[in-house]
């Protein structure tokens, strides 16, 4: 298996894990309340989104729910998707490869190896 195949496989596992966590929260909660937002925040953090980014997403989502008076969990899910997309669009994701040679550092966490070492 080549490098890019391994990368695609790893990203696929991450996406599936993320989807499972978020969908699990929405399958448990039908009422839009602070408890739902806390569970979503925890799911984002546990999905390796990062503490600061997770807090920012939930803060934006909380404000939007209040501003738009959202009562439906499915609508919250759509808003969550939009808020995450908005944060990703703001990032400068361009590669700066003007120098020669250029170095690209890829960092990841292999959870299965964490469990083996515990």
Task: Give an account of the 3D structure.
By secondary structure, the protein is mainly alpha-helical. It has one domain (about 5-90): Four Helix Bundle (Hemerythrin (Met), subunit A) (Up-down Bundle), CATH 1.20.120.140. The protein is built from five helices and no strands. The protein has helices at about 5-30, 35-45, 50-70, 75-90, 110-115. The longest helix has 26 residues, at about 5-30.
Sheet bearing the most strands, described?
A: none
| CATH class category label | Mainly Alpha
Radius of gyration: 17 Å
Residue share in helices? 55-70%
Strand content: under 5%
Put simply, the count of helices is 5
The CATH topology is Four Helix Bundle (Hemerythrin (Met), subunit A)
Q: Name the average pLDDT.
A: 84
Return the structural class: mainly alpha
Order of helices and strands: HHHHH
The CATH superfamily is known as SRP54, nucleotide-binding domain
Based on CA inertia axes, which overall geometry fits?
globular
Low-confidence stretches: 112-118
> What is the number of independent domains?
1
What is the rounded distance between the termini? 28 Å
């Amino acid at each position: 298996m080549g490098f890019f195949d391994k990368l695609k496989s790893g990203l696929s596992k991450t996406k599936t894990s993320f989807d499972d966590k978020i969908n699990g929260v929405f399958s448990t909660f039908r009422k839009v309340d602070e408890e739902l937002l806390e569970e979503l925040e925890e799911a984002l953090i546990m999905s390796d989104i990062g503490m600061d980014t997770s807090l920012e997403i939930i803060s934006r989502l909380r404000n939007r729910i209040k501003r738009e008076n959202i009562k439906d969990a499915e609508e919250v899910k759509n808003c969550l998707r939009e808020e995450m997309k908005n944060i990703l669009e703001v990032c400068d994701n361009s590669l700066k490869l003007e120098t020669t040679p250029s170095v690209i550092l890829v960092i990841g966490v292999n959870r299965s190896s964490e469990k083996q070492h515990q």
